[in-house]
Amino acid sequence: MLNFDFYNPTQILFGKGRIADLSKVVPADARVLVLYGGGSIKSNGVFDEVMAGLAGRTVFEFAGIEPNPSYETLMHAVELVRKEKLDFLLAVGGGSVIDGTKFVAAAVNFEGDPWAILEKRGRNITQALPFGSILTLPATGSEMNDGSVVTRKSLQAKVAFSNKLVFPKFSILDPTKTFSLPVKQIGNGVVDAYAHVMEQYMTYPVNAPVQDRFAEGLLLTLIEEGPKALANPEDYDTRANIMWCATLALNGLIGAGVPQDWSTHMVGHELTALYGLDHAQTLAIVLPSMLRVRKEGKRAKLLQYAERVWNITEGSEDARIEQAIQRTQEFFEKMGVKTRLGDYKLGTQNIDAILKHLESHRMVTLGEQRDVTLDVSRKVLELSL
Ligand SMILES: [Zn+2]
Question: H helices of 250-298, where?
């Protein structure tokens, strides 16, 4: 019996040239901090468009938010906001910049040590600065949700938090701004979005056909459009479809009222924190094995997935399930993301360290049935060698 709240206040401005609309959505008297990552927005024209859109406002910049944004770096942005009394944040970049901006928004006026925000997973946030985003890398969905992941380098800890107060006020999605992304980022983005859908879809049936069909539609679209983006990076329609898929994959819509898994992400976070793998690489490694090891608990949905997404209807149940997982793995490889620990020079010798980190982060009962114990995670990693 479905029973849920759905709340999403983020305004989306989608299309070519929409950065100019900043002048309409950022208050005219705002004191703005523009946060970004590396320098690519300065060479591809995005930065100039942003400045034109913000004309007339006081604008400061904060550069250098890294992939897997670090607490250490973000605290420098917090200091700048406090010192200059800024009151509006604008994230320009991908999920890491947006996630980092969410943390800054919550930390600026937080009473006490802002690390507590991460320790309490965001439950203790009582206010946040308003912020918007300009998305240049479709993948994480952070542009339309209230979640964030921050890494504290000194502790090798990658921690997620969420709170309704850190939804972006608006996000501008201009697909032409994704044309110049490196090929690796295109593949990573598609795999991340795919995994987000799977973590909310691949559980057990609860008679939620709307959520199921939406999820399957997003998966099918990613399977169709992903390879096209690799072949023709400047095809507007392809990039627009992938961009919107990645947003819808994690804006709450497909996950409303249904069981969710997220164990692949949690195990993946440890791989990134320990060994620096890209987020999507960790998902490509973990997801196929996670599905194989937990085949019994997910049997009904795996069979549905095989039929509706991969058109597999022949053979025994186990054969259909294995074929669907195999096709999933091949799709990740086709997107240029390798799916084995060995592809990243990791092996049996690393598994104990990964499990130790899972244990120290209390990630010992993961999954929709809370049955992904450390033993299950070990099996998953062993199967991913
Ligand atoms: Zn992800």
Answer: 263-275, 279-293
pLDDT at residue 1 above 90? no
Three-state SS sequence of 305-366: HHHHHHCCCCCCHHHHHHHHHHHHHHHHHHCCCCCCHHHHCCCHHHHHHHHHHHHHCCCCCE
CA of 234 from ligand 1 middle (Å) equals 24
CB-based neighbours (< 5 A) of ligand 1, an ion? 192
- pTM of this prediction? 0.96
Could you tell me which residues come within 8 angstroms of residue 68 by beta carbon, excluding any fewer than 6 positions away? 96, 149, 151, 158, 272, 273, 279
Distance 256 CA to ligand 1 centre (A): 18
Output the CA 83–ligand 1 centroid distance in Å: 33
The alpha carbon dihedral of 25, 173, 143, 152 has a sign of: negative
Q: What is the CA radius of gyration of the chain?
A: 20
Q: Report yes or no: 221 and 190 within 8 Å, Cβ to Cβ.
A: no
What is the Å distance from ligand 1's center to 85 Cα? 33
Ligand 1: centre distance to CA 316 (Å): 32
Length of the chain: 385
Predicted confidence band of residue 7 (pLDDT cuts 50, 70, 90): very high
Domains of the chain: 11-177 (3.40.50.1970), 182-383 (1.20.1090.10)
- Residue 146 CA to ligand 1 center (angstroms) comes to 14
First to last CA, the chain: 40
Cα of 178 to ligand 1 centre, how many Å? 18
